[in-house]
Amino acid sequence: GGAARQRERGEPMIAGTVNEDEVRRSIKTVTFDGTAGKGLVGNVPIFTVTGEVFIEKVVPFCTVDLVGATATLALGFTGATTALIAATIATDIDANEFWTAAVPGAIPIQEPALLKEWNTSDNIVGTVAVGDITAGAVRFTVYWRPVSADGLVA
User: Fold this and answer.
1) What is the pLDDT of residues 55-108, one digit of tens each?
2) What value does the mean pLDDT of the chain take?
3) How far apart are CA 138 and CA 55, in angstroms?
4) Stated pTM of the model
5) Maximum distance among all Cα pairs of the chain, rounded to whole angstroms
6) CA 17 centroid distance within chain
7) Residues 97-131 as b or e (16 or more Cβ within 10 Å = b)
8) Are 153 and 47 in contact (CB under 8 A)?
């Protein structure tokens, strides 16, 4: 549309407008080390949501095997911590695999319904339970659109 042509020509965008048709991408890698917010039993902050957004899809990809003998990891929102992926045995989340379900599988995979099409104003969080996750890394990619003027996923 017009906004894309403005960007291509290097023209300034109108400040304060919301283009709900433009899908944006936010990426964050969580490196687990067993400390608070990074694998200790409890909350793992992943993305902070400001305002209201429409989540097109969430794509978690394990880059380093998770370690934690009895640990589980779930993915969801503040107040609905298993909305995206139910508690998963952490050691089943392996490097070079997409984490899309409580029982991870081989790739390629089709994006599951629970990982796409959410309206939210809540942060995206992981929840570690049973035991600590002491090592490993997961890269989280979120494709989203702003709904409110201040809509942001960071």
Assistant:
1) 999 999 999 999 999 999 999 999 999 999 999 999 999 999 999 988 776 666
2) 88
3) 19
4) 0.84
5) 54
6) 25
7) bbbbeeebeeeeeeeeebbeebebebbbbbbbbeb
8) yes
